[in-house]
Design brief:
Elements (H helix, E strand, L loop, with lengths): L4 E5 L5 H7 L1 H8 L3 E5 L6 H14 L3 E7 L3 H10 L5 E6 L7 H8 L8 E5 H17 L3 H14 L17
Parallel strand pairs: 1-2, 1-3, 3-4, 4-5
Length: 171
């Protein structure tokens, strides 16, 4: 089966942050086809290789790698797609370095194996989903239309108004 976007987390323990971020809701509302899987780059490199090759054969347009600590997953995805597909990365915070370790491992990719890093934790996850939809919208008119509708609903500007003052009206 073909998926526009494949999201890979390094561990099932990362699933709660994915759910909290609303990234899956973005994918659903924009109407892209997507799949979320847990495959560790460290513990299951052969499974990850086979999984990515199969998704590529099926025509996946964008890969999102989500990982904490050493965050090898986005880099492994970038290696496996060999520059043929965009890879978005999201760093997850941990108790030790608060996501900085994962962030740095993704932004220090060698030339030719880019990972487009979208941030840390919930904001990064949400932005990765939105960026992936933007990429798919470049080649899919229906997604482009639905993305426009989604953005109109989320880009409402807050009202500007005086909330408090130490002067009386008319002074």
């Amino acid at each position: 089966m073909h998926y526009d976007i494949v999201v890979v987390i390094g561990s099932k323990t990362d699933l709660e942050k994915v759910k909290q971020s609303n990234m899956l809701n973005v994918l659903k509302e924009v109407g892209v086809s997507w799949q979320l899987s847990a495959v560790s780059a460290h513990r299951n490199p052969t499974d990850l290789t086979n999984y990515v090759r199969e998704r590529e054969r099926e025509g996946t347009a964008v890969f999102i790698g989500i990982a904490g600590m050493a965050a090898a997953l986005p880099g492994a995805l970038a290696f496996l797609v060999d520059g043929r597909k965009p890879v978005l990365g999201v760093a997850l915070s941990s108790a030790v370095l608060d996501g900085l370790d994962a962030l740095l491992s993704q932004v220090r990719m060698p030339p030719g194996r880019p990972v487009a890093v979208c941030g840390i934790d919930e904001a990064g996850l949400y932005n990765a989903a939105l960026t992936a939809c933007q990429i798919v919208a470049l080649i899919n008119e229906d997604v482009r239309r639905k993305l426009g509708v989604f953005l109109e609903g989320t880009n409402k500007q807050p009202e500007i108004g005086l909330l408090a003052s130490n002067k009386k009206e008319g002074e």
